[in-house]
Amino acid sequence: MKKKKTCITCPIGCLLEIDYDLTKKEINSLKGNQCKKGYKFAQDELFNPKRILTTTVKINSRFFKRLPVRSNIPAPKGMIERMVKEIKRIQIALPVKMGDVLAKNFMDTGVNIISSATIEQ
Amino acid sequence: MAQLIKQAENKIKHSNDPEYNLVVIGGGPGGMAAAVKAAELGVEGVLLIERDSFLGGILPQCIHGGFGIKIFNSELTGPEYCQLFVEKVRNISIEVMLDTMALVIDLKGEKKSIIVSSRNFGTKRITAKAIILSLGCRERTRGQILIPGSRPAGVLTAGLVQRMVNIEGFLPGKNIVILGSGDIGLIMARRLVLEGCNVKGVFELMPFSTGLLRNISQCLEDFEIPLYLSHTVTEIYGGKRIESVDIAMVDKNLNPIQSKTKNIACDTLLLSVGLIPENELSKTGEIEIDLKTGGPAVDEYLHTSQNGVFACGNSLFVNDLVDNVTEDGYLAAQSALSFLSGRLRSKKLINIEAGENIAYIVPQKASGKSDVNFRIRASIPLRNAFIEFSNTGLKKKVRFVNPGELIFAKITKDDFGKFLECNARTASDSIKVSIKKEVQGQ
């Protein structure tokens, strides 16, 4: 099978032309990538797509009503919409520091939800 | 201008003007980078002025990833990128004034000065030996693209909605139409879908998107949000609240085709139709503005037309990546240091003109005494093209250019040498830069 995909590893956004075999989960040929990360992206994207998840959780700070949070590693793409809904239930006590783990192995995805910001008050 | 200065001056109560070596105006990524770098390089008496209650500018509301690949060699979110710089600012001796608005830059007197206003101390005059402007940019609004129709609530710019959703914590509406495929529009399309809104589509006037390719892929394609190129909003309906919009396909000349119009019900229209460098303050200092970028015309040191005043960040030109803004902040700081230590002397400058297929080029002037990194914004997408620098014989191949992605091109000191030799014969004092399509078989 052939597919065109924009590599989203970095903001350059190479247009990849991928020829692949879905049953064997193998890439036969790859064109358009400017670095080797393109190959890794194509492989993940076709056989196991993942995305960094970012959203917000309610807090009570002087300036911010929401705390930005993220997944520490890319989360399974198919789970993201459900995860974002579930994340809203997380309760936050201030102060919170950037990188603080707010939920471990969230919804059994192997992904931790961490704080993106330091908010003291 | 004199009147503006006088108006601001009338409000000043105290007369002891604090004096700084370097005042950086704007506490976003550009300003923080400039202030931190200047302090790291040993400049004493650095003041950073920010009008908001926190540092970071636009970064705290950009909760998505993709920041810091160049500067931190990892993919961070906006708040993380911001936090790392806020810590740098805290750990080095920089004075920070929050909740402080710079009203006027006064360069008429013997000393450069800035009149600032704050709820903490009222209005005062601050003198500076050097100034770095990192004022950010503003969003284009409905008024600037002249959409006809009634004037209901619910017509909002994308960056404003980003702040509402990510910082203030409320949604603008439920059924959303997005006009313009700029990066913030694409990112907000995804964000609003994740928050449970129904995004009916992204409509782009041009036959191509002005956003980064990766954003079209990960924000629209991932969520099956349709992108309609060559479409625009021709009418807004609604009383108190927007109820629907007319969407029309446009022809080659960007004129709406009447027969290809449809009505779409919505309660929110998001506009992502471009950004304009913010330079109201620069104008009070009578700094020369390049009409193409909308920012100050600078040389390769980011030196504006006013001696000792430098510009960086989105007030210089609208960037796609924060990493580039940070690098320009560093460059402005280095240049300010050179100026303060008397090493930055005014030289004869070569004008750099934006030619064919180029929306703008920065810097707009160059001394030719060192290598210069040009930042070029293409006006249309082109494949297999080359950048031509007139009067230098210099050509650079580019596989693909896209208005959404800034092009970097370097001219070395040696190449400038060739120009200067040629210049002596032709008496031309400018280099015209163009992007042209490679002709097959040549």
Helix content of chain A: 10-25%
Number of strands of chain A: 9
Q: Name the pair of protein chains with the most residues at their interface, and give those residue counts.
A: A-B, 29 and 33 residues
Shape of chain A: elongated
Distance between the first and last residues' Cα of chain A: 54 Å
Rough outline of chain B: globular
Uncertain parts of chain B: none
What's the helical proportion of residues of chain B? 10-25%
CATH superfamily heading of the largest domain in chain A: CPE0013-like
The averaged pLDDT of chain A comes out at 91
Termini Cα gap of chain B: 55 Å
CATH topology of the largest domain in chain A: CPE0013-like fold
Which strand order spans the largest sheet of chain A, edge to edge or round the barrel?
5-6-9-8
CATH architecture of the largest domain in chain B: 3-Layer(bba) Sandwich
Radius of gyration of chain A: 18 Å
**CATH homology superfamily name of the largest domain in chain B:** FAD/NAD(P)-binding domain
Order of helices and strands of chain A: EEEHEEEEHEE
Provide the low-confidence segments of chain A as ranges.
Answer: none
